[in-house]
Specification:
3 helices, single chain, elongated, mainly alpha
Length: 101
């Protein structure tokens, strides 16, 4: 299933998410990683030092989705600013301090 505006595809189906009782707000492109994470959490009694690998993989996926949305929104803002007047320069998402000369 292709999600509009995202580079990631939906891997988990609606039926799988319902069966795994994934809450509706968490049914995004990373839900296929949340299902095994929740199973591991339940099996390990939610001990915080267990399931670290699954949690890290899931959180990285969520982080990538957030960054993708932020970059897309920045491009939209840049287009709007250039169409209006172009006088203000947008705040860069990634600062150029490493290349300061």
């Amino acid at each position: 299933m292709e999600v509009e505006g995202s580079s990631k595809k939906m891997i988990a189906t609606q039926a799988e998410m319902v069966e795994a009782k994934v809450p509706i707000p968490y049914r995004d492109q990373c839900a296929h990683l949340l299902i095994p994470l929740n199973k591991c959490r339940q099996a390990e009694l939610y001990l915080p030092w267990k399931c670290e690998t699954e949690r890290h993989i899931y959180e990285k996926c969520e982080y990538e989705l957030v960054m993708e949305r932020m970059i897309k929104m920045q491009k939209i803002r840049e287009q709007e600013a250039s169409s209006k007047s172009g006088k203000k320069s947008p705040i860069p998402l990634i600062p150029n301090t490493a290349n300061a000369s």
